[in-house]
Amino acid sequence: MSRLLLALVVVILLFGAGTAIHVIWILAVICLILWVAGFLFRPGRHHWYFW
User: Where are the chain's structural domains?
Assistant: First the structure.
């Protein structure tokens, strides 16, 4: 019985990790799109930074 519970816990942890990694990839792609948009639609300055 304890092996079954251990296997269930491992499956739940791996499923949770897979979901979290998928969400992190989606956030990374959104940040990349915003970063590229910042380069394309920047103000009149010709610098890549706004200090």
Answer: 1-51
